[in-house]
Amino acid sequence: MKKYIIMAVLLAVVLYGCTQTETKIVQQAQDTNTPSTESSQVRVEIKGFSFNPPTLTIKKGTTVTWTQRDSTRHTVTSDDGVFESGLLSKDESWSYTFNEAGTFGYHCSPHPSMTAKIIVE
């Protein structure tokens, strides 16, 4: 009986930690309402068949990490062939470092209505 109680407590702690981590990721995405960011690492969440935030302004040398939250697989595919994540399953992440200035439109290959852009200054 003690073993089951300990397992239940451990499971609750793990689930609580996962929920807190997911909440922080969502909060980071929501906090990116400003047109630019000074961080050298930025997160974009793929959820609800959309990229959040849909437009992001960053400095050269910034690494953007996309985390896929939908149960349907998605890609992060640049419109001009500069980068391609391949298919990402739920909770998988993929990163790309932007070392050149410019505007980089991107989309999901299987779902071309999912679009977004990165502006690199």
List keywords for this structure.
Immunoglobulin-like, 121 residues, alpha/beta, globular
Give an overview in words:
This protein has 121 residues and is α/β, with parallel strands linked by helices. The protein has one domain: Immunoglobulin-like (Sandwich), CATH 2.60.40.420. Strand 1 and strand 2 form a beta hairpin. About 17% of the residues have low confidence. It is globular. The chain is built from 1 helix and 8 strands. The strands form 2 sheets. A 4-stranded mixed β-sheet has the order 2-1-4-6. Strands 3-8-7-5 form a 4-stranded mixed β-sheet, with no helix packed on it. Helix content is 25%, strand content 32%. The longest helix is centred in the N-terminal third of the chain and has 30 residues.
In short:
By secondary structure, this protein is α/β, with parallel strands linked by helices. It has one helix spanning 2-31, and strands at 41-46, 51-52, 55-58, 62-68, 77-78, 93-98, 102-107, 115-120.
The CATH topology is what? Answer: Immunoglobulin-like
- Low-confidence segments, ≥5 residues, pLDDT <50? 18-37
Number of DSSP helical runs: 1
Give the CA-CA distance, first to last residue: 60 Å
Integer count of domains? 1
Helix percentage: 10-25%
Question: How would you characterize the largest beta sheet?
Answer: 4 strands, mixed
Tell me, briefly, the overall form.
Answer: globular
Strand content of the residues, in percent?
25-35%
What are the secondary-structure elements, in order, as H or E?
Answer: HEEEEEEEE
User: Strand tally, please?
Assistant: 8
Supply the CATH class: Mainly Beta
- The CATH architecture: Sandwich
CATH superfamily: Cupredoxins -  blue copper proteins
Strand order of the largest sheet: 2-1-4-6
Structural class: alpha/beta
The average pLDDT score comes to: 81
- The radius of gyration is 17 Å
Oligomer: single chain
